[in-house]
């Protein structure tokens, strides 16, 4: 089983990591885990025109590693091996694309627990991910 575990550093995503660890302990074979953080791009123009490409990449990498750290520590403590992925873009699109590219059989992610009306009006990364993933998506509250 190949699992994509997108995290954003929120309590919701860390809860999803904990739920995944519980699930992984029930599996007969250890899953292949891909831990992902997707950073929203800095808007073109404005700040971006004052930074060189190397500085912007360093910023994305630094911020992404900080967001991955709590989830990585939990996976390490549970004895689950994983591969880190850092991407820049629209989270739901990147999650769907990477899940397909890696051949993942499951995406596990947190939901902010908004009701149907709020999600319909505002949208959410979780709701958008459902639209962009070909594999099953397990949402935790």
Question: Can you offer a commentary on this structure?
Answer:
There is one protein chain. This protein has 141 residues and is of the alpha/beta class. The chain is built from 5 helices and 5 strands. The protein has a 5-stranded parallel β-sheet, with helices on both faces. Strand 1, helix 1 and strand 2 form a beta-alpha-beta unit. The longest helix has 25 residues, at 53-77. The relative contact order is 0.23. The mean pLDDT is 89.
What order do the strands of the largest sheet run in, or round the barrel if closed?
A: 3-2-1-4-5
How much of the polypeptide forms β-strand, as a percent range? 15-25%
Mean pLDDT equals: 89
Structural class: alpha/beta
**Poorly predicted ranges (pLDDT <50, ≥5 residues)?**
none
Q: Helix amount, in percent?
A: 40-55%
Q: Roughly how many Å is the radius of gyration?
A: 16 Å
Number of helices: 5
Form type? globular
Order of helices and strands: EHEHEHEHHE
> How many strands in all?
5
Q: Let me know the largest β-sheet.
A: 5 strands, parallel
**What is the CA-CA span between the terminal residues?**
23 Å
């Amino acid at each position: 089983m190949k699992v994509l575990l997108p995290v954003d550093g929120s309590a919701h995503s860390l809860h999803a990591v904990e739920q995944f660890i519980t699930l992984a302990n029930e599996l007969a074979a250890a899953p292949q885990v891909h831990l992902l953080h997707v950073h929203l791009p800095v808007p073109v123009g404005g700040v971006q025109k004052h930074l060189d490409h190397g500085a912007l990449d360093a910023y994305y990498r630094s911020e992404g590693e900080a967001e991955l750290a709590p989830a990585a520590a939990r996976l390490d403590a549970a004895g689950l091996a994983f591969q880190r992925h850092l991407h820049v873009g629209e989270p739901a699109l990147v999650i769907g694309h990477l899940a397909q590219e890696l051949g993942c059989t499951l995406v596990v992610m947190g939901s902010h627990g908004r009701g149907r009306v709020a999600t319909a009006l505002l949208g959410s990364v979780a709701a958008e991910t459902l639209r962009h993933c070909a594999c099953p998506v397990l949402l935790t509250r």
